[in-house]
């Protein structure tokens, strides 16, 4: 497992690294410079990113939230003080774990596991949502194609669907693809 630790303080980074000592087969990369951070993280391609910010300013938090949005990785962020706005912004940015006043070596491993599990759960939800949206868009396209066939040929809804299905089967394509082609052709011809 590749783990990137982002911390401008070598002392705090060593606390995090100590908490990871029990992990087998790990590569730890400590990044202490904010300049070029996203590029460096992309180069390392870590499995998990642990960011310790101590007591960051709003600008620094926003900069790290941009890092979180740019990477599709589990991210745990450690800060010294709680801030409701920062917590909400971290959730929006995709931070998997936002830990307030929790930098202790004994807590790092459980927090790492939490960040990975929350990231994976959120990724599954996003995939399910994308799939549902895709199916809905296909269903709407098929319904629109059926309406076109019903209006132009005087077919009933079951007949229009049967026509789309017949064409899909004869051309070895999906019904949604045939429906999209019909709707596109209809739009090009400009008939209402």
Keywords for this entry:
192 residues; alpha/beta; Rossmann fold; Arc Repressor Mutant, subunit A; 2 domains; 7 helices; elongated
Largest sheet: 5 strands, parallel
Strand order of the largest sheet: 2-1-3-4-5
> How much helix, percentage-wise, in residues?
55-70%
CATH C-level of the largest domain: Alpha Beta
Distance from first to last alpha carbon? 57 Å
The CATH homologous superfamily of the largest domain corresponds to Response regulator
Large-scale geometry: elongated
Protein name: ANTAR domain-containing response regulator
Domain ANTAR: 122-183
Keywords: Phosphoprotein
Modified residues (4-aspartylphosphate): 52
């Amino acid at each position: 497992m590749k783990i990137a630790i982002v911390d401008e303080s070598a002392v705090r980074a060593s606390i995090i690294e100590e908490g990871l000592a029990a992990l087998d087969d790990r590569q730890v990369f400590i990044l202490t410079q904010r300049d070029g951070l996203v590029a460096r993280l992309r180069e390392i391609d870590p499995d998990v990113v642990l960011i310790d910010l101590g007591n960051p300013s709003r600008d620094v938090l926003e900069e790290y939230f941009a890092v979180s949005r740019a990477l599709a990785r589990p991210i745990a962020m450690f800060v010294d003080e709680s801030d409701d706005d920062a917590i909400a912004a971290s959730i929006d940015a995709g931070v998997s774990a936002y830990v307030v006043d929790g930098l202790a070596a004994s807590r790092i491993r459980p927090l790492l596991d939490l960040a990975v599990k929350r990231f994976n759960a959120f990724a599954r939800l996003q995939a399910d949502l994308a799939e549902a949206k895709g199916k809905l868009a296909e269903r709407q396209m098929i319904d629109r194609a059926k309406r076109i066939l019903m209006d132009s040929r005087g077919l009933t809804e079951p007949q229009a669907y049967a026509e789309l299905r017949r064409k899909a089967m004869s051309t070895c394509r999906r019904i949604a693809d045939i429906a999209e082609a019909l709707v596109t052709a209809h739009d090009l011809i400009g008939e209402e």
